[in-house]
């Protein structure tokens, strides 16, 4: 049977071959012979050959069926897999579509996983639903119902209310930290005064002052002399007076509010130029005072502290937690000349009697009956005599804290804070910031109860003594300075957050710029419905105009310039300045009038903007900070150095060291960013390793070569002092503007300190010492 089956198989094959080729003419005879042989074999095989042929035909059919079934199965399985993938990943892709531009923040491809299964898009929607307008308006009204300076009964009552509101939110931790700080107040037993005296020193006219108007931390005592008008009291203003041979030595300098210069800087520059006293007034050109419109009246002065620094000026660089343990040390930023705020009416009275050279056209304000001259003499030969009578007092301060603990990296803090105190009602100065702080605390607390699980901790703080130079915040920084650069991710100041609803300004560290750029694309503009803040800014000239450098009186300044923590202060303003800040007229009714009744809406928009950034920092695996930002800042300085390269080398100074350090920092930052981009960001050990290095970037720019006590603002980009990039740039400019004043040895020291701070930042970013490859070239 086996033989017959084999033969049948061969015959079947031959049949197949002959059937396929029977029409071919070539080889026809051979095929005919073959068919004859097969016929003979079939006769011998009988029924076995028929059965075998039948079986073989069905075997070929089964093979075709199997192939078709396999192909069909693969197609069905693939279709089912794709369908299931589409269904289960649709939710993820919808969330990703909402995030849009954010996913590229800082170049880091951070996963978008939230705690408890919530995605970033869902968290954003939850936050928007929970934020409320009404609570913001009500809180501003409560905070600003009366003046509430530190240590007052009203201030203490407000602190208790805020502590209670934090406790009602049932966050993970709520506590207070108390400390004594030295603050200055008007002396109740004798008042400050201003008068005109004749050549014999006899008082010929008393000029009335409001006893509550004063400049905290002014020097006390008397000053008598002629009057010099110095515009805004900026460095360039005093330089113009010097070029015109107008000496301010021994004179009382009158300066305008504003010009981008704080009261402290104005008084310090006046003192530096030899003035005996300083008077500061609001000019109608800068602060609206038209009685027909909402504005300041001409009988109201603007008050501000004059300590060129922050914190308690009698414990510079270290905390005031226990005064008795430290010897009294006075801050170098305290002025040595008396300073007073005066009204536009008083300024007009003084300046209208001046004689001397005419002032430049840009110096001309809008005081009535004043011909713009700079002095220093009065037309009638009289002089000004001023007396400042203030007293120092130790005051108990209370900073109030509440926190939501992170679930993955609880020792990394995102901090939000606002000033609570104010010498006046302070609707803008303290009310708005406190209201937004409490609303964000309530919102994030509710989000946690609804399933939000932040990776990092959120810390909400109400600071005391902000009107005296951010004393409460700075003292806290000084107390925890050694650990904050390892724990604080970023700080957001909510001080003076709403002064209008038209223009957004962000005073910020460059590390937070990308985070801000993503947030303004997500939040609707409070005044232009249907438009994001970003799109409206683009219409108004470009979103780049939103970002501005940190300034001395900012609530965020000390965090970056002193502690090395990336910080930002956000503010909505009008094109026309808010006129009531730092005055007794800063009330909620006037703020509502400026905003057209939209205080709650505007406050909510700013709260949402800050909330967007906080969400990213609390949610992303890798911190979305732009670590390469400072390379561009130093590059701009390098370009200026390059312009003076020949002259510097002729003096034996080479800019090559700076160029090399900048290149090392830029390469180190880019290398770290690439390593992050190509890492598994779901691996906890890797993300922890990179986040620790990212958090230290700002800290690396604190100069290690100056004392924190003598020079507290050690940051070489944002700080103050000879070690900073701005001081180095100013000194470099003397090569062309005033070569005689260029101090080669001083410049050499400045250049060396800055270069090694930058090089140290580059080395730290590189990581391990064996990863650092510095090429030190010696030049002769």
From TrEMBL:
Gene3D superfamilies: 3.50.30.30, Transferrin receptor-like, dimerisation domain, Zn peptidases. It is found in: Cell membrane. Residues 224-292 form the PA domain. The chain crosses the membrane at residues 66-88. InterPro entries: PA_dom_sf (IPR046450), PA_domain (IPR003137), Peptidase_M28 (IPR007484), Peptidase_M28B (IPR039373), TFR-like_dimer_dom_sf (IPR036757), TfR1/2_PA (IPR037324). One of its GO terms (cellular component) is external side of plasma membrane. Keywords: Cell membrane, Disulfide bond, Glycoprotein, Membrane, Receptor, Signal-anchor, Transmembrane, Transmembrane helix. This is Transferrin receptor 2. It holds the Pfam family PA. Residues 399-590 form the Peptidase M28 domain. The keyword Membrane applies. Residues 1-10 have a biased composition (Polar residues). It is a single-pass type II membrane protein. GO terms for molecular function: transferrin receptor activity. One of its GO terms (biological process) is transferrin transport. PANTHER family: N-ACETYLATED-ALPHA-LINKED ACIDIC DIPEPTIDASE, TRANSFERRIN RECEPTOR PROTEIN 2. Residues 1-25 are annotated as: Disordered. It comes from Maylandia zebra (zebra mbuna).
């Amino acid at each position: 049977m086996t033989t017959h089956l084999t033969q049948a198989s061969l015959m079947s094959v031959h049949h197949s071959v002959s059937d396929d080729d029977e029409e071919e003419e070539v080889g026809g005879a051979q095929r005919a012979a073959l068919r004859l042989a097969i016929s003979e074999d079939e006769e011998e095989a009988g029924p076995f050959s028929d059965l075998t042929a039948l079986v073989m035909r069905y075997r070929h059919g089964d093979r075709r069926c199997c192939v078709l079934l396999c192909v069909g199965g693969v197609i069905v399985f693939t279709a089912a897999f794709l369908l299931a993938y589409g269904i289960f990943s649709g939710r993820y892709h919808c969330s990703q579509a909402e995030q849009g531009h954010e996913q590229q923040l800082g170049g880091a491809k951070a996963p978008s996983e939230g705690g408890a299964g919530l995605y970033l898009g869902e968290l954003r929607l939850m936050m928007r639903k929970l934020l409320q307008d009404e609570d913001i308006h009500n809180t501003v009204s409560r905070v600003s119902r009366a003046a509430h300076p530190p240590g007052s009964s009203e201030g203490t009552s407000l602190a208790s209310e805020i502590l209670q509101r934090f406790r009602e939110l049932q966050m993970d931790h709520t506590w207070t930290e108390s400390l004594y700080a030295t603050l200055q107040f008007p002396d109740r037993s004798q008042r400050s005064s201003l008068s005109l005296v004749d050549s014999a020193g006899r008082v010929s006219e008393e000029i009335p002052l409001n006893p509550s108007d004063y400049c905290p931390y002014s020097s006390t005592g008397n000053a008598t002399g002629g009057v010099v008008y110095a515009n805004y009291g900026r460095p360039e203003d005093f330089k113009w007076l010097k070029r015109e041979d107008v000496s301010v030595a021994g004179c009382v300098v009158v300066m305008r509010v504003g010009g981008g210069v704080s009261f402290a800087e104005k008084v310090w520059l006046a003192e530096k130029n030899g003035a005996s006293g300083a008077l500061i007034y609001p000019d109608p050109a800068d602060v609206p005072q038209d009685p027909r419109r909402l504005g300041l009246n001409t009988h109201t002065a603007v008050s501000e502290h004059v300590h060129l620094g922050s914190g308690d000026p009698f414990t510079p660089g270290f905390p005031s937690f226990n005064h008795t343990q430290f010897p009294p040390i006075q801050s170098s930023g305290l002025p040595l000349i008396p300073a007073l705020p005066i009204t536009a009416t008083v300024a007009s009275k003084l300046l209208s009697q001046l004689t001397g050279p005419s002032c430049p056209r840009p110096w001309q304000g809008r005081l009535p009956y004043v011909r713009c001259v700079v002095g220093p003499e009065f037309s009638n030969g009289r002089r000004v005599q001023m007396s400042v009578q203030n007293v120092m007092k130790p005051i108990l301060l209370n900073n109030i804290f509440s926190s939501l603990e992170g679930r993955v990296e609880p020792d990394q803090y995102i901090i939000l804070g606002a000033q609570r105190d104010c010498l006046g009602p302070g609707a803008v100065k303290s009310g708005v910031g406190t209201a937004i702080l409490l609303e964000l605390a309530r919102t994030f607390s509710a989000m946690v109860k609804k399933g939000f699980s932040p990776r990092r901790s959120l810390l909400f703080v109400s600071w005391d003594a902000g009107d005296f130079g951010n004393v409460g915040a700075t003292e806290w920084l000084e107390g925890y300075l050694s650990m904050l650069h390892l724990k604080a991710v970023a700080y957001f100041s909510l001080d003076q957050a709403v002064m209008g609803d038209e223009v957004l300004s962000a005073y910020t560290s460059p590390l937070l710029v990308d985070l801000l750029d993503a947030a303004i694309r997500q939040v609707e503009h409070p005044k232009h419905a249907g438009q994001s803040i970003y799109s409206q800014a683009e219409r108004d000239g470009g979103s780049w105009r939103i970002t501005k450098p940190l300034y001395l009186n900012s609530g965020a300044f000390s965090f970056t310039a002193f502690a090395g923590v990336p910080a930002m202060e956000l503010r909505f303003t009008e094109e026309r300045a808010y006129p009531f800040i730092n005055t007794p007229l800063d009330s909620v009714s006037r703020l509502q009038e400026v905003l057209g009744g939209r205080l709650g809406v505007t406050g909510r928009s700013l709260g949402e903007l800050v909330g967007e950034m906080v969400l990213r920092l609390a949610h992303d695996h890798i911190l979305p900070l732009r670590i390469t930002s400072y390379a561009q800042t130093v590059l701009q300085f390098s370009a200026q150095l390059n312009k003076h390269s020949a002259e510097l080398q002729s003096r034996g100074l080479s800019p090559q060291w700076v160029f090399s350090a900048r290149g090392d920092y830029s390469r180190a930052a880019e290398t770290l960013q690439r390593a992050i981009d190509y890492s598994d960001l779901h691996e906890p050990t890797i993300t922890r390793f990179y986040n620790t290095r990212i958090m230290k970037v700002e800290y690396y720019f604190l100069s290690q070569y100056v004392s924190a006590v003598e020079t507290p603002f050690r940051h070489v980009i944002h700080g103050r002092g000879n070690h900073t990039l701005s001081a180095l740039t100013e000194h470099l400019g003397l090569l062309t503007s005033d070569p005689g004043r260029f101090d080669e040895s001083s410049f050499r020291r400045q250049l060396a300190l800055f270069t090694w701070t930058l090089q140290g930042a580059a080395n730290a970013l590189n990581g391990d010492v064996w990863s650092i490859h510095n090429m030190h070239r010696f030049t002769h």
